[in-house]
Amino acid sequence: PEAGPLAGRHALVTSGPTHEPIDPVRYIANRSSGKQGHAIAAALARLGARVTLVAGPVTLPDPPGVTTLHVETAREMLAACEAALPADIAVMAAAVADWRVAREATQKLKKEPGAEAPSLTMALNPDILATISRHARRPSLVIGFAAETEQVVEHAIAKRARKGCDWILANDVSGDVMGGDANRIHLVTDSGVEDWPEMAKAEVAARLAARIAAALG
Ligand code: C5P
């Protein structure tokens, strides 16, 4: 077993986008790279935690020393997270698709000559962060993200209450944060808001892991 301040702790981390299939060859996705979530999983492992990373489709390698489970859809991500419980820590960094196509076509949708473009009927995906925050086996520290383009901190405070998580890491994604290497975080907890300077995603991960270790004593 690893030494370190998080030795003996189990951390669950989500990362990356989800892919929501339309038909066997098409899907709906988003621009999440998984860089921040993967860096957090690696940082927690470096502090001695046993880490389960539930990763959507990303091009990143699996972080060393981390058990990585690969999923595609939001529903698969939720199932993998629930199966990974119990955990002491949950960090939900994935950019989960809010909606999926209500009925996935079993055959490729065909473009018939002269026919109109199809309409997609969408269905709501489960909210993984909210589900884990209110779970019977809720981890003692549940952390979510809030990517906002305006009123970043106000929205994050409201989101923390709505989701039922302990901390929210809020960041302004109006620039090129998604896919980029740097991040500027506002950490929202029950005792207020901390503004972190802009730093590399790896540094955000290390700082968060250290905060988690301090919080869990
Ligand atoms: O509601 P919003 O997507 O802005 O919330 C972002 C936070 O919620 C992130 O921590 C994200 O991982 C999590 N989330 C989730 N499942 C969803 C939507 C968001 O876990 N379906």
From TrEMBL:
Domain named DNA/pantothenate metabolism flavoprotein C-terminal: residues: 6-214
Reaction(s) the record says it catalyses: N-[(R)-4-phosphopantothenoyl]-L-cysteine + H(+) = (R)-4'-phosphopantetheine + CO2; (R)-4'-phosphopantothenate + L-cysteine + CTP = N-[(R)-4-phosphopantothenoyl]-L-cysteine + CMP + diphosphate + H(+)
Keywords annotated in UniProt: Decarboxylase, Flavoprotein, FMN, Ligase, Lyase, Magnesium, Metal-binding, Multifunctional enzyme
EC number annotated for this UniProt entry: 4.1.1.36, 6.3.2.5
Keyword Lyase carried by entry: yes
Region (Phosphopantothenate--cysteine ligase): 11-217
Cofactor(s) named in the record: FMN; Mg(2+)
Signal peptide location: none
Binding site for CTP: D98, K108, P126, D127, I128, L129, F145, K159, K163
Physiological role: Catalyzes two sequential steps in the biosynthesis of coenzyme A. In the first step cysteine is conjugated to 4'-phosphopantothenate to form 4-phosphopantothenoylcysteine. In the second step the latter compound is decarboxylated to form 4'-phosphopantotheine. Catalyzes two steps in the biosynthesis of coenzyme A. In the first step cysteine is conjugated to 4'-phosphopantothenate to form 4-phosphopantothenoylcysteine, in the latter compound is decarboxylated to form 4'-phosphopantotheine.
Family as reported in the entry's similarity comment: In the N-terminal section; belongs to the HFCD (homo-oligomeric flavin containing Cys decarboxylase) superfamily.
Protein name as it appears in the record: Coenzyme A biosynthesis bifunctional protein CoaBC
Native source species: Belnapia arida
The gene coding this protein: coaBC
